[in-house]
Predict the 3D structure of the following.
Amino acid sequence: MPDSIPLRYGINPHQTPALVSAIAEWPFAVLNGQPGYINLLDAMSAWNLVRELRQTLNQPAAASYKHVSPAGAAIGLPLSERLARSYEVERLDLSAVAAAYVRARGGDLVSAYGDFAAVSDTVDESLARFLRREVSDGIIAPAYEPAALDILRKKKGGRYLILQADPELAPPAVESRDHFGIRLEQPLDRRPVDGSVFDNPVTELTDFPEDVRRDLLVATIALRYTQSNSVCVAADGQVIGLGAGQQSRIHCSRLACGKADRWMLQQHDQVLGLQFDAALKRPDRFAAREQYIAWTELSQPERERLRSQIANWPGPLTEDDRHDWIGQFRTVLSHDAFMPFRDNVDRAQASSVTHILQPGGSIADDDTTNACNQYGITMALSGQRLFRH
């Protein structure tokens, strides 16, 4: 690797020239394409996220990154038939690493458009074939099968960014950033997120079953690499709703739970049964399903356009339809810092949240605990804040 690599430009196209250099050893090699500034910010965060998920849960892991926060993250569990239909992958033979990325991207199919992908394991043909058809800017992984590399090198007219991470290289013990003529330094956040975070339940219900622990670890590790404030909802080994970068914690909860609701409703029979104009492309179908779910929030022109795209218009989902369907699911929720008010619990219970993990430390801890008891939610205080800026 050279001492530095020229970038296409900085954060904005007018910020040129821009370059990247290694503090010590290069943590990656460029196998194809030319990196951009934001590409590398996403790639480094995404790689560290999937590596931590892999180390913690001993499963292939993946992340879909957009603008320095994950659109989704997941481990490589098999997909149910309904979920595969929702993601439009029911005809694909997915390996574990491919399933991890399909899940990561599927947690927020609209936000994942044009993402940067990361996986913890070798990229195989199964994953490469899936990525070939998706709108994505690049990928970082520890290794690539030769056939998979050949497929990806042809993507985007040969410009698809392919990075190979060094899985043996540990990040520096100290991280720094320059801003307006000053340099800030701090120890890298290395405190593990593991089973010990469940050791302090504070609610009347105290049990954290294995699948709940798994999903809360996925959510909480994702928060470590998300712009704060942030709240994450997870289910079935994947992120299903992430609210990031908001000044108000309740707005994070509303974003995360709203996305989780859409993920659940995308698997509703009425949504899966929508028939679209044959000319509508996959990203447009995903967007149309999301608009259909959010019918009450649409303007009149949006409603008219949506109805023109659906050949078998069934009418919108009713509130009872939505409530009954969401009520069949069980989800978990994690916060990167304490919950200042019980309104976060009030919002969470409406999205079928059964377990909450948060650091605690607010003067309102008793209020949030009482709210959890009211709804039959189990909550533990981890004592570990995970801010990222």
About this structure: The chain is about 35% helix and 20% strand.
